[in-house]
């Protein structure tokens, strides 16, 4: 207790009942975070490494797992740029223009955050599935969406849709249109305004949004689960691979899961770094 | 005559609407259409079964409770992170985002491994007769886990914006620490607390990956609604049943969105919550 | 030559920002648009810059339709109120921006751009700071960078939005003088928007006073100050204060005193508004002659005494400005006798528009006599 009390220091000179209350509160918070967040994280690595390093390396070098890694990277490589452009376009439209239905558009951009990923996947099946609205048309043209890469991309785009836009819109709203207007009066055209004035001012927020978007894209489970059909080696992304291995080979599932956990830790690390180095330019976050 | 002086209106709205249309609007319309096609009777035939009702009760009940717990824990964590300086504060702050960034399936198996009867924590709870994994308690735990960052991250900026001035003002007016918290801070934090609550609730209701491993999916006992949707699609190819249930979930999401919008509007008079 | 603005209207919802504005700006003129916030002056500026379009009306420059040109081809330099400098570019890069974004065929060579930028920065006395970023500059320096940036594209019209609004009082006074000289040396047609009367009167060749989307008066600083055309201009520019007055056949009666006012009693006006300025309320040299009043408060500001007076028989207190020596003798609560040295009378028609006005002067304080000059305005 004394050690913790010594590490807590804030501005003034707390009298003893207040410093005691602080110590207790900090301890409680540490307990909550440790119990709720740190333990599961430790459990992943502990379970993954329990059978030994050789087994671990072997598990993540299985062909199916490598195929899942490739698929996950492919999906992210398509979905993240799509969302990057979406975020930029939506933010440009929402912050530089007045038009009818703008509030509705804003609500729609946020919608995927509150819709269950499973429902999202199901909705995509209702449109693009074999018996869906566009199913027969797609089949006639030889395009398979559901149980194939396009479906995975669509599901991923759906769940990650708000990430970039939500970082950019508040920031660009706070910055206003004045600089863009200044560039316009100086003779710049649309692309010049975008690349020379807007983009340099939102680059860190953009990177921040892309980072979060990418983490979610690579880790999405529910929406992707519904549309993938989980064909091993074909439509299994890493999280789906974890799910399938979990039934058969507990330790291998954790080995694969540890890869995703590492990705998470790296993401959180970069996120922290961005907040620390470029906090001012990210203002308007959350 | 156009009033839009800056260029790019058509390009930006065009692309935005194209993506929204193909990924959100069209699927949304398809769900509503399928659900409407069923009609009230057909819808009830799908949703009114004992199994579905049990799953809905569990999903919503556990989510409500989990969001409440998240608000309490989140307030504690946000308060400590903003107000106090202590060792590992930055690490703790970064960790808060973990449930947000950790793939849900990974979180799900991790929680299960911890709380299973042979797990680190589960084995210690067995002698007490407490069963977390494969029980409703497990569902609750997973939902608390995924919802926590929403409350903390909503509260943090508001707490930061309320610098010491207000409390010092209350202090000079003779308020005790508890009065300062209850009468000054809590009312100002209320909109953020409500928003955080709604966000955590929305996430918990729809959560799939973190929950299905630890819940064990026992018939009538620990099946959550998203699990049933997946079951209907995956093994029964029952798209209408899935759509009927999905419509209920979607309605809940939309209601929560509306509630959040109302809270934001209401909070604007204080301008504490952006 | 010059800019011809004709019947400009701009409405935002139910708010009328510009209500049928017509105006001519001569070549090389330095014009101030003066008005309180919400008077429409910024709307006018934005329309001239091409950042907004009017609902109706036209703007022509030497016979060319300016509204048909979009902002980037208009050749109008705009200095934003908060400068809108690009924070990620250095001072030199900011100034060069307008040249560097020109279409490839029209873009000057790098060396030419550099020479132009150097020249401009020398003129705004910032050549030492070319490599700095805007965040590293003071407010006055930023303003000059914004000016140089707007001038780099060799605009034929320079617009300045509240050029001194974001500056400290001291910097403001120095920059005013500098900008006035700078404009003289450039000779470029310029229009600046301000809500500060002193700024407009001190700097501009001509002042346009705006209120609620309408032009109240256009004139030289001298005219606007000494012969306000409307009660609004009188209040806004000369701090005119309303006093109760009534006009009969050949006289104006104000608080019991009678002033001669011939030819004003006419059927054209419906009501009159009588204004007195602070400097025209003087304390009477002989007690008992004039209006009895009570001093509510006395403040001494830079050689002038500002006295708040409650004149007997009036509801609202009046503000008087006396020179320091004169005012020094008085204290609050004291009873004094004051006289009005001059009054301005506005005759208003049924819609509240000015249709007649007159200035009344009284050279002899003891016996208020009114002498012309007065004139009728077209309704």
UniProtKB/TrEMBL annotation, chain A:
Q: How does it sit in the membrane?
A: Multi-pass membrane protein
Q: Where is the ABC transmembrane type-1 domain?
A: 69-271
Instruction: Give the keywords, sorted.
Output: Membrane, Sulfate transport, Transmembrane, Transmembrane helix, Transport
* InterPro entries per UniProt: CysW_permease (IPR011866), MetI-like (IPR000515), MetI-like_sf (IPR035906), Sulph_transpt2 (IPR005667)
The positions making up the signal sequence are: none
Q: Which residues cross the membrane?
A: 23-46, 66-92, 104-129, 141-165, 205-230, 250-270
Where it sits in the cell: the answer is: Cell membrane
**Pfam families hit by this protein:** BPD_transp_1
This protein's superkingdom? Bacteria
**Entry function:** Part of the ABC transporter complex CysAWTP (TC 3.A.1.6.1) involved in sulfate/thiosulfate import. Probably responsible for the translocation of the substrate across the membrane.
Please describe the quaternary structure of this protein.
Answer: The complex is composed of two ATP-binding proteins (CysA), two transmembrane proteins (CysT and CysW) and a solute-binding protein (CysP).
In its UniProt entry, what is this protein called?
Answer: Sulfate ABC transporter permease subunit CysW
In its UniProt entry, the species of origin is given as Dyella mobilis
Whichever gene encodes this chain, its name is cysW
UniProtKB/TrEMBL annotation, chain C:
Has keyword Ribosomal protein? no
Q: Which SMART domains match?
A: AAA
List, for all copies, the residue spans of the domain called ABC transporter.
3-237
Enumerate the Pfam families for this protein.
Answer: ABC_tran (PF00005)
Q: List all membrane-crossing ranges.
A: none
Q: Which GO terms describe its molecular function?
A: ATP binding
Record keywords: Ribonucleoprotein included?
no
Q: Which UniProt keywords apply?
A: ATP-binding, Nucleotide-binding, Sulfate transport, Translocase, Transport
UniProt protein name = Sulfate ABC transporter ATP-binding protein
Organism name? Dyella mobilis
Q: Which gene encodes it?
A: cysA
């Amino acid at each position: 207790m004394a050690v913790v009390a010594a590490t807590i220091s804030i501005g003034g000179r707390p009298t003893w009942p207040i410093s005691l209350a602080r110590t207790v509160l900090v301890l409680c918070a540490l307990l909550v975070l440790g119990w709720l967040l740190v333990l599961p994280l430790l459990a992943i690595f502990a379970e993954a490494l329990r059978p030994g390093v050789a087994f671990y390396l072997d598990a993540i070098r299985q062909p199916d797992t490598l195929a899942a890694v490739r698929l996950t990277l492919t999906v992210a490589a398509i979905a993240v740029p799509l969302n990057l452009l979406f975020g930029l376009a939506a933010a440009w439209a929402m912050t530089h223009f007045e038009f009818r239905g703008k509030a509705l558009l804003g609500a729609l951009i946020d919608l995927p955050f509150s819709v269950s990923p499973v429902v999202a996947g199901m909705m995509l099946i209702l449109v693009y599935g074999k018996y869906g609205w566009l199913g027969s048309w797609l089949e006639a043209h030889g395009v398979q969406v559901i149980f194939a890469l396009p479906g995975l991309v669509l599901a991923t785009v759906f769940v990650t849709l708000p990430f970039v836009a939500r970082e950019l819109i508040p920031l660009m709203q706070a910055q206003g249109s004045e600089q863009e207007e200044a560039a316009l009066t100086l003779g710049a055209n649309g692309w010049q305004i975008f690349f020379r004035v807007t983009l340099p001012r939102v680059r860190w927020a953009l990177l921040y949004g892309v980072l979060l978007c990418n983490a979610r894209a690579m880790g999405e489970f529910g929406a992707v689960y519904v549309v993938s059909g989980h064909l091993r080696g074909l439509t299994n992304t890493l999280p789906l691979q974890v799910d399938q291995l979990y039934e058969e080979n507990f330790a291998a599932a954790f080995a694969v899961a540890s890869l995703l956990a590492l990705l998470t830790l790296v993401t959180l690390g970069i996120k922290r770094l961005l907040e620390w180095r470029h906090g001012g330019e990210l203002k308007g976050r959350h | 005559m156009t009033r839009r002086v800056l260029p790019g209106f058509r390009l930006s709205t065009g692309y935005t609407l194209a993506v929204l249309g193909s990924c959100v609007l069209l699927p949304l319309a398809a769900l509503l259409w399928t659900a409407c096609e069923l009609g009230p009777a057909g819808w009830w035939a799908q949703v009114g079964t004992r199994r579905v009702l049990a799953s809905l009760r569990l999903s919503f009940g556990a989510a409500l409770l989990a969001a409440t717990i998240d608000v309490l824990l989140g307030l504690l964590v946000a308060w400590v992170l903003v107000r106090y300086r202590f060792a590992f504060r930055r690490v703790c702050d970064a960790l808060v985002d973990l449930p947000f960034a950790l793939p849900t399936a990974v979180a799900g198996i991790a929680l299960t491994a911890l709380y299973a009867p042979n797990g680190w924590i589960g084995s210690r709870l067995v002698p007490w007769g407490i069963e977390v994994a494969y029980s409703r308690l497990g569902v609750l735990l997973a939902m608390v886990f995924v919802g926590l960052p929403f409350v903390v991250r909503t509260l943090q900026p508001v707490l930061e914006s309320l610098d010491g001035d207000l409390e010092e003002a209350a202090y000079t007016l003779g308020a005790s620490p508890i009065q300062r918290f209850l009468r000054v801070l809590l009312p100002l934090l209320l909109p953020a607390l409500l928003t955080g609550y709604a966000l955590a609730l929305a996430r918990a209701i729809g959560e799939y990956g973190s929950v299905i491993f630890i819940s064990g999916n026992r018939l009538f006992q620990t099946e959550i609604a998203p699990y049933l949707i997946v079951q209907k699609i995956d093994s029964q190819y029952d798209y209408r049943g899935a759509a009927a249930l999905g419509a209920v979930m979607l309605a809940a999401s939309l209601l929560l969105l509306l509630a959040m919008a109302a809270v934001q509007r209401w909070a604007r008079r204080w301008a504490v919550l952006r | 030559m010059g800019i011809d603005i004709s019947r400009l209207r701009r409405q935002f919802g139910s708010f009328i920002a510009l209500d049928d504005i017509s105006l001519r700006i001569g070549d090389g003129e330095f014009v101030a648009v003066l008005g309180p916030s919400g008077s429409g002056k910024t709307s006018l500026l934005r329309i001239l810059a091409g950042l907004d379009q009017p609902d109706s009306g036209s703007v022509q420059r030497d016979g060319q339709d300016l509204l048909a040109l979009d902002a980037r081809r208009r050749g109008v330099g705009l200095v934003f109120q908060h400068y809108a400098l690009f924070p990620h570019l250095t001072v030199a890069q900011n100034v060069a921006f307008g040249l560097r974004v020109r279409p490839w065929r029209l873009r000057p060579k790098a060396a030419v751009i550099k020479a132009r930028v150097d020249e401009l920065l020398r003129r705004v006395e910032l050549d030492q700071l070319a490599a700095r970023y805007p965040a590293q500059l003071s407010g006055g320096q930023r303003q000059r960078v914004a000016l140089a940036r707007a001038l780099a594209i060799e605009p034929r019209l320079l617009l300045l939005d509240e050029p001194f609004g974001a500056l400290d009082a001291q910097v403001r006074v120095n920059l005013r003088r500098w900008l006035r000289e700078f404009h003289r040396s450039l000779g470029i047609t310029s229009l600046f928007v301000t809500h500060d009367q002193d700024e407009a009167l001190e700097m501009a060749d001509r002042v346009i006073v705006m209120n609620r989307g309408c032009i109240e008066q256009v004139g030289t600083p001298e005219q606007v100050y000494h012969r306000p055309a409307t009660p609004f201009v009188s209040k806004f520019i000369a701090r005119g204060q309303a006093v109760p007055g009534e006009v009969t056949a050949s006289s104006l009666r104000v608080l019991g005193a009678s002033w001669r006012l011939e030819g004003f009693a006419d059927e054209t006006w419906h009501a009159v508004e009588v204004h007195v300025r602070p400097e025209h309320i003087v304390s009477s040299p002989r007690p008992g002659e004039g209006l009895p009043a009570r001093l509510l408060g006395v403040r001494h500001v830079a050689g002038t005494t500002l006295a708040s007076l409650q004149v007997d028989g009036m509801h609202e207190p009046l503000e008087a400005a006396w020179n320091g020596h004169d005012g020094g003798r008085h204290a609050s609560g004291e009873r004094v006798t004051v006289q009005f040295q001059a009054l301005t009378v506005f005759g208003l028609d049924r819609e509240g528009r000015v249709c007649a006005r007159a200035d009344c002067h009284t050279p002899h304080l003891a016996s208020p006599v009114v002498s012309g000059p007065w004139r009728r305005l077209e309704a």
